[in-house]
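Journal club prep — side note

Before the paper discussion, L.F. wants everyone to see what a predicted structure for a comparable chain looks like in token form. Sequence:
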Amino acid sequence: MDKPALKFVEESHWYSLEYADGTTTSLPSVSEIIAPIVDYSMVNKAMMIRAQEFGTNVHKAIELWLKDSLDIDKLDDGLRKPLEGFRKWLFNTYPGAKCKSEVRSHHELLGYAGTIDLIINDYMIVDIKTRKYNRVVDPVRLAAYSMLVHERITQTNLYVLEIDVDGNCKLIKAYDKYAMSVFRKLLDRYKREKEFEDFVRKWKGR
């Protein structure tokens, strides 16, 4: 039996599995599952939107550059320093590295999906951030990512790369021995809530 294909809709950040017979099954993303531990309540909404847009654009510039699809001459001035900082960091720290960018995958047994920013030399996951490292959220996110890919990537090879507007880069080890158990609890909670929502919807639709 053919394995289902993983589909992703970027606008809605929606993952699904598409089967040979045309049927689909939706999958929660890592971001959805860990949402309860993410708190932006103290951040100005307008500032948060600008920061998210900047982060998205930096990610895209790095992805295109890694895939040799970026026209640097057309790059926005605000993205030149972060991209150049990343290029220098990569060349100086991991010269000749084999890089995979925007790696999408899903876990067949646990039923979730995610997109990994960067995998270096098939053993190291790097989550690229244009904000400071978050010790509550980042280790849990990366622990979830580690289960989506090659078995050589253990929880001790998980990192966050901070990149600021001036292109300064700082690599931070994002390992926490409790992170995986926290993610599993959050996943269990997510599934219980979805089951309850489905129950209520079916009851109302009798």
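L.F.'s comment for the group: Strands lie at 5-9, 14-18, 24-27, 99-107, 112-120, 124-129, 158-163, 169-173. Keep this in mind when we get to the figures.
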